[in-house]
């Protein structure tokens, strides 16, 4: 039996927390503040877009997809007058590694995961994935803990770029997809409103647009058509994300899954990545270290 798309989602729930410390840990926030970036969002957009180099804010808005254009424009290109992309790249990697070490992870403990995740990430297809490609062009770290963080960063951006492509092909704007995501119960509505800059009027506007397509009912809940579309988006994203595992044989997939699971548990136990995030992570499966091939 071939690999099922659900496997890609289970991997996402394991590698995404490892990457996500760069958004939530105090070490990461302090490192970006120390560069002089003003506030969380300037640091976020600078660090995450740094692999692209100095590009217009419109390029970052297009690539990141679901952020308000004005939010990106408040951070970029002003951030590059404070600290260049190379400095942001160093800060995000060094602070992420410091965070992972605080959780008790060591180079020896993550060596297998780093090697196999790196093998997968190096071989994953570049096609149509600009943010993944930009990260893939960066020098590969030599220390296993840094290499693991870098590999998980590549794998999550590989999946994320594909997810954006699926959303666009479904006829959803970046602003609409946030509303649909919340209606599906994947993330709290209040979190999306706050983190993606909606006021009540804007939120209702995008609800109305989705309702006109028959995806939401008058109460902002998913219709049958909305549920079907949302399931198709997630299933197609999982299917496309499976391509990142093609370089690994089944034994290596099982070995990577087994190696990543306790690392993800350690990151979750570290407490910096909150239970509810815009990424819609699940923690229900982290007690299972069997990929089930």
Give structural notes.
- By secondary structure, this protein is mostly helical.
- The chain has a domain at 5-168 and 236-270.
- Helix content is 66%, strand content 0%.
- It has 14 helices and no strands.
Keyphrases for this structure?
293 residues; mainly alpha; 14 helices; 0% strand; globular
Draw up the topology in text.
Layout: H1 5-24, H2 26-35, H3 39-49, H4 57-64, H5 69-75, H6 85-102, H7 107-123, H8 130-136, H9 144-169, H10 174-183, H11 189-195, H12 200-212, H13 224-241, H14 250-270
Helix pairs in contact: 1-2, 1-6, 1-9, 1-13, 1-14, 2-6, 3-5, 3-6, 4-5, 6-9, 7-9, 7-14, 8-9, 9-13, 10-12
Structure annotation, total helices: 14
Report the sheet with the most strands, covering strand number, pairing sense and barrel closure: none
Backbone CA Rg = 19 Å
Strand pairing plus helix content: what structural class?
mainly alpha
Mean residue pLDDT: 95
- Shape estimate: globular
The count of DSSP E runs of length 2 or more, i.e. the number of strands, is 0
Strand content: under 5%
Q: Low-confidence spans: pLDDT under 50, at least 5 residues?
A: none
Give the distance, in angstroms, between the N- and C-terminal Cα atoms: 8 Å
| Percent helix | 55-70%
- SSE sequence, one letter per element: HHHHHHHHHHHHHH
In summary, what is this structure?
The protein has 293 residues and is an all-alpha fold. It contains 14 helices and no strands. It has a domain at 5-168 and 236-270.
């Amino acid at each position: 039996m071939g690999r099922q798309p659900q496997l890609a989602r289970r991997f996402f729930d394991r590698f995404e927390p490892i990457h996500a410390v760069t958004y939530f840990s105090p070490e990461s926030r302090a490192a970006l503040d120390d560069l002089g970036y003003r506030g969380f969002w300037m640091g976020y957009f600078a660090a995450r877009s740094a692999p692209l180099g100095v590009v217009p804010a419109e390029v970052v808005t297009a690539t990141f997809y679901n952020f308000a254009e004005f939010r990106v424009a408040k951070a970029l290109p002003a951030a590059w007058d404070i600290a260049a992309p190379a400095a942001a790249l160093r800060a995000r990697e060094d602070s992420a590694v410091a965070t992972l070490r605080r959780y008790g992870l060591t180079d020896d403990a993550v060596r297998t995961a780093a090697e196999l995740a790196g093998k997968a990430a190096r071989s994953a297809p570049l096609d149509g994935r600009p943010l993944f490609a930009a990260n893939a062009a960066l020098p590969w770290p030599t220390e296993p803990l840094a290499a693991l963080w870098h590999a998980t960063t590549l794998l999550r951006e590989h999946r994320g770029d594909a997810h954006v492509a699926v959303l666009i092909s479904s006829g959803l704007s970046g602003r609409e997809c946030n509303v649909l995501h919340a209606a599906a119960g994947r993330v709290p509505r209040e979190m999306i409103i706050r983190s993606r800059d909606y006021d009540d009027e804007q939120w209702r506007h995008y609800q109305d647009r989705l309702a006109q397509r028959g995806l939401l009912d008058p109460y902002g809940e998913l219709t049958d058509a909305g549920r079907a579309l949302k399931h198709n988006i997630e299933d197609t994203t999982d299917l496309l994300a499976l391509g990142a595992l093609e370089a690994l044989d089944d034994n290596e997939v099982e070995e990577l899954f087994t190696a990543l699971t306790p690392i993800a548990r350690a990151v979750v136990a570290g407490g910096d990545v909150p239970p509810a995030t815009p990424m819609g992570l699940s923690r229900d499966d982290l007690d299972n270290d069997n990929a089930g091939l």
